[in-house]
Amino acid sequence: MGIEVGGLLGLIWLIILVWAIVKVAKSSAGGVAKLLWILALLCFPLVGLIIWLLMGPKG
After folding, report:
1. What region, left, alpha or beta, does residue 29 occupy, with left being phi > 0 and alpha being psi -120 to 50 degrees?
2. What pTM, to 2 d.p., does this model score?
3. From which residue to which does the signal peptide run (predicted)?
4. Does residue 24 sit in helix, strand or coil?
């Protein structure tokens, strides 16, 4: 049962990460800023997502 719970949590995490990347790509931020945010989200998924939620582009 532990594998199924871990797999479900991993899937949820992947969905959240993809959502954040799509939000960054659709934001009004400049191209370089978008690239840096996406790289931060991919390289540091947990920390990058928290920082993006707090300080990322709005809109």
Report:
1. beta
2. 0.76
3. none
4. helix
Nearest-angstrom CA–CA distance, 59 and 28: 6
Residues 2-54: pLDDT tens digits?
567 778 888 888 898 899 899 989 988 889 988 998 898 889 888 888 888 88
Q: Please provide the size of the chain in residues.
A: 59
Among the listed residues 19, 20, 29, the one whose alpha carbon sits nearest the alpha carbon of residue 58: 29
Extents of the domains making up the chain? 28-58
Distance CA 39, CA 45 (A): 9
Rg, the chain, Cα only: 13
